[in-house]
Amino acid sequence: MQTSTNTSTQKSAALPDAWVAAIFKRLGLNYGNLWTSQFPTQQRTDEMIAEWGKALANVQPHKIKHALEHLPDMPPTLPQFRRLCECHNDDWEHRGAAYKPFPPALPKPKAKPDTVANALSAIRARPRMTPDEMAAEARRLREAGQ
Predict the structure, then answer these.
(1) How buried is residue 69: exposed, middle or buried, by Cβ count under 10 Å (0-12/13-18/19+)?
(2) DSSP one-letter string for 75-114
(3) Residue 126's CB: how many other CB atoms inside 10 A?
């Protein structure tokens, strides 16, 4: 008895050559000779298409599109292109360090009431100064090395 397998749950062997060729064409249009000079022969081009097809086999099309829309200044290597694809996040336009989750901070330490009271009384005890007087005091302290 033959069993059927669900193709949607199986991993693809490779991205279709036509798709990779389209990616290469787009990279060639963007980078010109910087890209095309990497493929001096048709055999080399075919080898690279096969390799990129394997490496991009399970990358979703919208992630490839995102990578092609966010190309760096220099032609990407295969690992760099994969990282560009992986940087796509449906929730954020960009995925830089600013958007990465970070561990929660430690709770703020509680201020000691007597320390707060002493600091406030020291502030209140100072004579009020005009901005010019504050600047002169700052200069005096700076010149005194404080």
Answers:
(1) exposed
(2) PPPHHHHHHHHHT-BTTBS--SGGGS--PPPPPPPPPPHH
(3) 7
Which tokens sit at 97? 């360090």
Cβ–Cβ under 8 Å, residues 14 and 57? yes
What's the pLDDT at 43? 94
pLDDT, one tens digit per residue, over 83-97 is 988 875 555 455 566
Domain boundaries, the chain: 17-97, 113-143
- Could you give the 3-state DSSP secondary structure of residue 144? coil
According to the model, what pLDDT value does residue 37 have?
A: 92
What rounded mean pLDDT belongs to the chain?
A: 84
List, for the chain, all residue ranges whose pLDDT scores fall below the cut of 70: 1-12, 88-100
Q: Which two tokens stand for residue 133?
A: 């007087």
Residue listed under structure tokens 């249009």: 29
Residue 131 amino acid letter: P
